[in-house]
C-alpha cells in the first residue's frame, strides 16, 4: 500500500533533490514517513542516500562529482548520521518509527491469532524481514539513534516493549 516504486522515487529525487530534506508540519522528513509506513529497505536506502548527498551539497562540502572533485568521506558519514538521527517534533527519529512499525506488525498478528498458525507466519515473514532490514539500515546509519529518547523519554526499544507487552 505504501510502497513507492523505486524508479519513481529516484526520478523525483533527481529532479527535486531538496525534497529529500523537506519537513512536514510535524518536522518529519520523507525518511521518517517511509520508516513509519514500513517502506522497503531499498526505498529507505534511496531516501537516506539522497538526503545525505543533499545535506552535504547544501553545506558546501561536496563538490561536483562530474568535475572529478573528491569529497570528504568522513564528512559524508556525519551527514548520514544527521539525516538518520534527526528527531521530529515529538523527538522521534526514523529509527523510532521503523521499530514501532516492526513491533506493531508482531503485536497486530498476535492479537488476531491466539496461536500463530503456519499461514499467519508465512504471511508475516516477508513483512518482518523487510522491517528488520530497515531497522538495521537506520541503526547502522546512526548508531546514536538507538539510545535517543523521544519527547516521552522513550528510546526506540522502549516502544517495542510497550507495544509487544502492552
Automatic annotation (TrEMBL):
InterPro entries: Ankyrin_rpt, Ankyrin_rpt-contain_sf. Signal peptide: none annotated. This is ANK_REP_REGION domain-containing protein.
